[in-house]
Amino acid sequence: MNIIIVNSADVPIYEQIMNQIKSAILSGELKEGDLLPSVRGLAKDLNVSVITTRKTYECLEAEGFTINMAGKGSFVAPQNMELLRETRLVEIEKKLEYIIEYGRPVGILGEDLKKIIDELSLEE
Question: What are 43-101's pLDDT values in tens digits?
Fold first, then answer.
């Protein structure tokens, strides 16, 4: 798993790390039961604060993506497909909101976006 941090991004560092770990879980790169790097190890590898990685792991556990076992570390949790679907839908909604706001100033509206989605869906 290769985590890339963009210091100039508007997204907080802990959230960047969390999103990339979630993506690795959702894509199957990280599988149920896989051990994540230690909080200190990940902080050192990424050259960030231990507080940042601890917050990342706490959020991942709160969202059901990982399980923390005292003295053993954080592991990828068994995945509930409904939870994964809901998480993915929330991410898609955020991206669509951005796209809508991006297109609005130049008159790209809902019908245009629906056509684009339909065309892209047919390409599969």
Answer: 999 999 999 999 999 999 998 899 998 889 999 998 777 777 887 888 899 999 999 99
Domain of 64? Answer: 13-76
Is 21 in contact with 27 (CB distance < 8 Å)?
no
Any idea of the CA torsion for 100, 105, 109, 112, to the nearest 10 degrees?
-100
Work out how many domains the chain is built from and give that number: 2
Q: Identity (one letter) of the amino acid at 53?
A: T
- Same-domain status, 89 and 60: no
- Residues 56 and 109 occupy one common structural domain: no
pTM of the model: 0.68
- The answer to whether residue 104 is domain-embedded is yes
Element (H, E) at 62: helix 50-62
Residue 3 counted as domain residue: no
User: What is the C-alpha radius of gyration for the chain, rounded to an integer number of angstroms?
Assistant: 18
Distance from C-alpha of 77 to C-alpha of 61, rounded to nearest angstrom:
8
Distance between the two ends of the chain, CA-based, in angstroms? 28
